Amino acid sequence: MKIWDVRTVLGWTVGLLAAATIALGAQAQEPIKLGVFLSATGGAAFLGDPEKKTIELYVEKINADGGLLGRQVQLTIYDDGTKAKEALTFVKRLIDQDKVDLIIGGTTTGNTMAVINEVEQAGLPFISLAGASVIIDPVKKWVFKTPHTDRLAVQKIFTDMKARGLTKIGLLAGSGGFDKSCAGNARALMESEGVEILADETHGAGDTDMTPQLTKIKNTEGVQAFLYCGFGAPTSIVAKNYKQLGITIPHYQTHGSASVRFIKGADGAAEGVRLPAAALLVVDSLPDSHPQKAIASAYKAAYEDGYKEPISTFGGHAYDALFLAAEAIKRAGSLDKEAVRSEIEKTNGFIGVDGIFTMSPDDHLGLDNDSFVMVEVHDGGWKLQE
Amino acid sequence: MSSQFLQFLISGITVGATYALVGLGFSIVYNSSQVINFAQGEFVMIGGMATVFLMAAGAPMPLAIALAVLLAVVIGFALGKFAIEPARGAPVVSIIIITIGASIFLRGAAMLVWDRNLHHMPAFSGSDPIDIGGAALLPQSVWVVGGMVIIVAALQVFFSHARIGKAMLATAFNPLAAQLVGISTRGMLLLSFALAAGIGAIAGILIAPITLTYAGVGIMLGLKGFSAAIVGGLGNPMGAVAGGLVVGIAEAMTAGYISSAYKDAVAFLIILAVLLIRPSGLFGRRESERV
What we know:
The complex is a heterodimer of chains A (386) and B (291). Chain A has helices at 6-29, 45-64, 84-96, 109-122, 150-163, 177-193, 211-218, 233-244, 260-265, 293-307, 313-332, 337-345, and strands at residues 32-38, 73-79, 102-105, 126-128, 143-145, 168-173, 196-202, 225-229, 251-253, 274-278, 348-351, 356-358, 372-378, 381-384.
C-alpha cells in the first residue's frame, strides 16, 4: 500500500491549507461579544423593557451597516427580573461562560451595585443604565454610566426653586435605592444650595396612599415647595394624593417620573408638576439650534417606527451606552479591555440622547447640569420651561 | 388638629379596606381547605388588568368589569382543578408551595398577555374630593369601603344560611364526616378557589383607580392582605376586615404622628403581638387538639 504518493501528499496539503484559511477567516470574522443584563420583567420592567428594545434595535442596525471594526456584534441579553441576586448570577455567566468583551446593563441602582465587585475583579468595561450617583462616586476603574444622576437632578431642581424664590421645602421619598439616594443628595446639597428641608418624610414599597405624609407636609409651617423622590406607581399616587388634599405649593418630582405613564397614571393630577428631564422628552419643542436635536429626533423616529410605542428617556440611556461603547471600540481599534476602557474614559464631546458626554478619570458619567431641561406637565404632555 | 386626625383616619380606613378586601380571599380558601393561597394577590391583579385592557378594547366599564370577574373565576377554578386537586392528599405545605408557583406563573403570563406598564383606571364617580370636617375623602374610597361591607355581609349570609356555604364550612371542619353526609368535598374545594378568585378580582377593580394596576401589583397587596387575614384570624371574613382596618389605621397613625419611617415596622409589630397573644387571630377559632 502506497500512502505517501505525490498525489496524496498534494491532496493533503491543499486540504490542510484550505482548512487553515477557513479557520483564519473565521477568526477574523469572530464577532464582538456584547453582554447585556436588564430588568425587562419585574418591578423595573417599564425601564428595562424600552432599554432592551433599544439595544436590540440598534445592534441590528450596527450589524446591517457592517458591524464594528469589520466584525459583527453578537448580543447576549439576560433578564434579571429586577432581582439583584439574579443580576449577579447573569453577570458571572456573561464573564465566565459567554466571555463577553463589554457589559451594558443594570437597569436599577440596586442591581448595578450588586455586580460592581464582580466586574471590577474580572476587569472589563461596564456601562450601567441606573440613576443613582453612588455608582460612579467614588469612581470605580471599570464602571461607567449614562443616565443623569439624582445628584444632578436635585441640583437642577434646587436651582429652579431658587430662581422662583422658593427655599423652604417639604421632602417625601420612597424606600427604593434611587429614592433613598435622591433624598440623601437633597439633604447633602441643601446647605451649599441654600435650601432648607422643613419636613422630611418617607413611604414604604408598594404603599398605595401617601396622604398622611402629605398632610404633615401641608401642615408644616413655612413650606414653600414640595419635592418627591421616587419612581414607578408611587409617582402617580403622590400626584393624586396631592390634588386630593388640595395642596397648592409648587410640586417637583425627579427624572424618575419622566414617563408618559406618570401623567396617565395620575389621571389629570399631574398638571403643573415640574421635573428635570433629558431633552429627548421634549425633542419636538427643542429649537433646531439645540445640539441634541438631530440625534434625539433620529432616535425617536427609529424607536417609534420599530416598536409602534412612544419613546421613554430610559431607552435613551441604553442608546447612549451602546454608542459610547461603539465609539470607544472604534477608537481603540481592538477589543483589548484596558484599551476600550481608557477610550471610554477619554470620551470627549460625544453627543448622545441624554446630553453631551465628556468623561475623565474623575468623572465616569460626563454629564453636567446643562444636560437637563426643566419641564412642566401641561395639558397631559410635557412643556419645556425656560 | 382634629382635621389632621380625620385625614389620617380616612387614609387608614381606605388602606385598611384595601387590605381587608384582599384578605377575604385568603379566608375563603383557608375555610374549605386549610390552604393559604398565595396566588390571591394575582387575582387582584387580574381583575384590574383585565378591566383596563377590556376597556381599552372598547368595552363599556360595567361589561369590562363583569368579564374581568368572570375571567378571574375561570382562572381560579382552573387553578383548583389542574394544580390543587391533583395534589390532594399532599401535605398542606406542599399545596401552599404550589400556590406560590401558580402566583409566579400568573404574574409572568400577565406580562406576556398584557404588558409590563402601569395602567390607570378611571375612578367610578369622579376624582373630586369630598370635604369632611376639613379632611379630604376621595369618592373611590367610599366605593372601596362600601364594596367591602357588601361583600362581607354577603359572605356572612352565604356561610351561615346557604346550604352550599354551610357545606363548605363542614368540609373545612371535617372533610371525612362531610363526605359521609353526602357533600362533594372536591366540588367545595373548586368552589372556594373560584369564589376567592372572583372576590379578589372585585377587590382589584375597586382599588385600581387608587393604586393603579400593573402585572406586579399583587405582590405587596397579597402580602398585606395576608397580614390582615392573619391578624383578624384566618377563616373568618369578619376577621379579615378587622385585621385590615387595624393594620391600615395603625400604619396611617404611625406615619402621621410618629414617623413615616416606622410605618411598616409598626404594622409588623402588631402582627407579631397578635400572633404571640392570640395565635389564632382576633376573631379566629381556638384550635383544640384532638388526642
